[in-house]
Structures are given as structure tokens and as C-alpha cells.
Amino acid sequence: MLLHMPVSAAILPPPALEIQGVKIVTSVDGIGSITYDSELQWSLSNEILGANLFPVTDPQSPNDYIWVIGEEPPLNDNGEVQSHITYSEDTQANMGIISYRKTSEVTTEPLAGAQYNVWNERMITFTGIDAGTLLSSEDMTMYNVGTCTLPTLSTCPFLCCDCMVNPAFCSRIETGSNLDMSRVAAYLAGGFRNVNEVGDSEPYPPIPSVDGPALAKYTVQVTEMGQGKPSFGTVSTYLKISELDSDADPSNPSGIDPQKDLMQRMEVSEIRSIKGDIDLFDYHITYESKISQDSCCGS
After folding, report:
1. How far is CA 142 from CA 77, 83, 190, in A?
2. Count of beta carbons in the 10 Å neighbourhood of residue 139
3. Which long-range contacts (CB under 8 A, 24 or more apart) does 16-20 make?
């Protein structure tokens, strides 16, 4: 299955002041049992997480202002965007011959094109001894939210030139897989792009750029162990997408209620599974969410 779904909503936050990069490579060949657990949680905002900063007039000096801290939620209505990512893997190979390769990469800098800030790639072969089995689950989620943002967001001067605001949005994608196999050859890979360049750093919160989309990709391939020797067991995958985009009224942006005035609502939910001898199970997802560059107000 190939699902490519362009959506006109998500605006990604710029990177934090410090850039981090992590790469982990794991290789295992053996006979017996292994356990592998992995978990990632990453949240990013163009303002601050868990609170809001607001400028107010300084009572001691009416010509100046001071910053005060407000509660969150809700997000800062001056144009805050956030991205939240989670990833987890739980693999247990019990009594068998196993070959396991995994590469995990995380970079917090903005990336050009179809590159991913979070990427995990696995190759697994397993043959159980007696009642030996491989149990492996993988789950990944990207949740992007934002209030209405100002239009000066792109390095391209022809985009959104006449609009007062881009609409508020709430965008979520969840996907993953489960393997319960006594014999398997599998390739699994997936990742997210969730960081953009800053559009304008002068105001507060800084205005993020709309030049890059939120991206997600996930692949599950289970094939024969060899000619005439299929994999055996159960493979399942799932996908959930939720997309909410508020209305946008250039003549009256303050009159929009992002909770009620929607111009788009989309929900996707599916599960795929197979059990028994498996010659081929091939599942691919690609996802893209962004402000459309073919229209001024992101539709």
C-alpha cells in the first residue's frame, strides 16, 4: 500500500538555540535470546514549552514593557507552533538464530528536501529453535499544533503576500507494526521531519517558516527466508491520521474561533495484518502536511 496525502496545515517550529545530533548503530548475530528496548520523546516550540511569555506595560515606566509568564495550555495566541514526536521499539527474540541490525539517527537542525530529523531502520532475520519466537513492536507518532500565525513566513516573497494570518491547525499521525514470528526476514524503516528554518526572528514568538513540510515515512517488508522458504507468523501494521484546520478570515482574524470554525477536518484509520506462511508483505506510508504554495492563504 502506498498512501501519499498532501495536507494544507502544519507549520513546523524552528530549531532550538543549540543543535544536537545522535546516531546509534546496533548489530547482533547469535543463537539464544536478546531483548532490545528503545524510546524517544521530543517536543519543540517557537516559544517555550509548558508556559507562555507575554509583554505587558511596565507600571514603573509606561513607555517600557516587562515579560510575564502565563499558563499553557492554551498555546500563545500570538502565533505559537509546537511539534511533538514519540518513538518506541520493544523487541524480544526468544531461543533462536538471530541477526539484528538497527540504525537510529536524530538531528535537531532544519533539513532541506525529503530528509528526516528522526530516522530508524532495522533488518531482522530470525529462525526459532523448537518453540522459539520473535516478538517485536514499533510505534511512532508526530503531533503538530499551532495558533494563527502571521504571513511573513517564507523566503519566497510571492507566498501569502496578501494574507493577514495563516490558520490554526492540529495535525497528528500515528503508525507502527507488530511482528509475532517463528521464522522471519524483515526490513522496517521510518522517520519524521519536524523542524523548519526560522521565518522572522525579530518578533516574539519568532515567526516560523512555511518553506518545508512536516513529513512522515514508514515501511514494513517481510519476505521469504530463502527460495521456497516463506516467513511464518503474524504481521500487522496500523495508521491513524487526524487533521483539523481552522478557518482564515483576512478581514477579521480576531473573529475566528479555531475550536469551532473549521475549514478542514480529516480522519484516517486502518489496520493491515497477515498470518501464516508469508512470501511477501510490503507496506509503505508517506505523509506530507504543509501550507499550500499554490494559494495565498494556505488552502
Report:
1. 22, 7, 12
2. 16
3. 16/44, 16/108, 19/107, 19/108, 19/109, 20/106, 20/107, 20/108
Phi–psi pair at 285, nearest 5 degrees:
-130, 130
User: Domain extents for the chain?
Assistant: 2-45+79-289
Q: How far is CA 239 from the centre of its chain?
A: 13
For the chain, the C-alpha Rg in angstroms (whole number) is 23
HSE of 11, CA atoms in CB hemisphere, 13 A: 32
The Cα 121–Cα 243 span in angstroms is: 27
Degrees to nearest 5, angle at CA 133 with 131 and 137: 160
C-alpha cell at 62: 509606561
What is the grid cell recorded at 295? 494559494
Q: Give the C-alpha separation, 167 to 192, whole Å.
A: 23
Q: What is the mean pLDDT of each run of 10 residues along the chain (299 residues)?
A: 52 89 96 95 93 83 83 85 96 96 96 91 97 97 86 50 66 96 97 92 83 93 94 97 76 58 84 96 93 52
